[in-house]
């Protein structure tokens, strides 16, 4: 199986050729400015011309909500095009190939699920980076929901007295645990400001840094236990720049072990790197 994989971000687009589950080549370019989906699809296909004749299918992962109508957003400012944006239909019409499209965090979740050594039935993927996102697999199928919202677990409210989130709610996991939230807390604490990487480096001997990271890890631990209670998951996979930062996963697992037994769940590190979304996009056709 040869699939053209396309990962659409707010600022850049990655395209690659996936043969039998392996990413064999990739390229990246700035997200084009386009007023309509026809132009946008045309520009992507032009940039992928060298692979187009070789592939059987096209798998797309994208920022935003993916529904039958196309791509839309919870926050329209994060998308570079008008919504709903019927990109999959346009790619299919112009290329003549079957096209499948997923939200990018859902695509990464699907890739991580496929990478698990022990096949499990129910799993969640959580990425903690600039924001907090994820995807959910139930009964070995990626759960997307009718409007594509499934897996936006960063917007679970866990503290009604907590900080305001960019989504408009108060006390979302994202507003407490994300890299952005950590940086905000760090900047209020340290002068001159330090990076999140430096914050993790000094945490072992600096109680203030330790407290900031612990607050984030505690929010993620709560999210994990909530997901276990709601969905009776078998495992959770944690990724993202913060999720995979020094000692973070161990903290989350330690905090989970302090919760009641019924809500405890094993959290393991993500296998994928920056190409998890591309591979997940292609893996829609893998079986
Ligand atoms: Zn939110």
TrEMBL record:
Enzyme class (EC, first level): transferase
Listed transmembrane segments: none
Gene3D superfamilies hit by this protein: 3.30.420.40
NCBIfam families per the UniProt record, alphabetical: PRK05082.1
Name of the protein in its database record: N-acetylmannosamine kinase
Tree of life domain: Bacteria
InterPro entries: ATPase_NBD, ROK, ROK_cs
SUPFAM superfamilies in the record: Actin-like ATPase domain
PROSITE patterns attached to this UniProt entry: ROK
Keywords for this protein: Carbohydrate metabolism, Kinase, Transferase
Molecular function in Gene Ontology: N-acylmannosamine kinase activity
GO BP: N-acetylneuraminate catabolic process
Organism encoding this protein: Vibrio sinaloensis DSM 21326
EC number: 2.7.1.60
Highest classification ranks of the organism: Bacteria, Pseudomonadati, Pseudomonadota, Gammaproteobacteria, Vibrionales
């Amino acid at each position: 199986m040869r699939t053209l994989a396309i990962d659409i971000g707010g600022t850049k687009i990655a395209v690659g050729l996936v043969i039998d589950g392996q990413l064999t080549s990739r390229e990246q370019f700035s997200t084009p400015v386009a007023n309509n989906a026809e132009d946008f699809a045309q520009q992507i296909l032009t940039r992928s011309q060298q692979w187009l004749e070789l592939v059987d299918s096209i798998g797309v992962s994208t920022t935003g909500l993916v529904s039958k109508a196309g791509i839309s957003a919870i926050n329209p400012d994060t998308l570079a095009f008008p919504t709903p944006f019927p990109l999959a239909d346009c790619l299919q019409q112009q290329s003549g190939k079957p096209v499948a499209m997923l939200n990018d965090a859902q695509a990464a979740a699907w890739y991580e699920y496929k990478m698990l050594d022990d096949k499990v039935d129910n799993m969640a993927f959580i990425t903690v980076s600039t924001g907090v996102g994820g995807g959910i697999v139930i009964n070995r199928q990626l759960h997307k929901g009718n409007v594509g919202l499934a897996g936006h677990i960063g917007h679970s409210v866990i503290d009604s007295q907590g900080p305001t989130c960019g989504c408009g709610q108060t006390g979302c996991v994202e507003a407490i645990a994300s890299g952005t939230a950590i940086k905000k807390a760090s900047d209020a604490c340290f002068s001159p400001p330090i990076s999140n990487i430096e914050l993790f480096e000094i945490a072992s001997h600096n109680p203030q840094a330790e407290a900031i990271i612990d607050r984030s890890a505690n929010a993620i631990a709560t999210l994990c236990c909530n997901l276990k209670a709601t969905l009776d998951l078998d495992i959770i996979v944690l990724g993202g720049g913060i999720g995979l930062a020094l000692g973070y996963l161990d903290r989350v697992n330690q905090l989970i072990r302090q919760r009641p037994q019924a809500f405890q769940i094993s959290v393991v590190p993500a296998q994928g790197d920056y190409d998890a979304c591309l591979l997940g996009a292609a893996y829609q056709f893998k079986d």
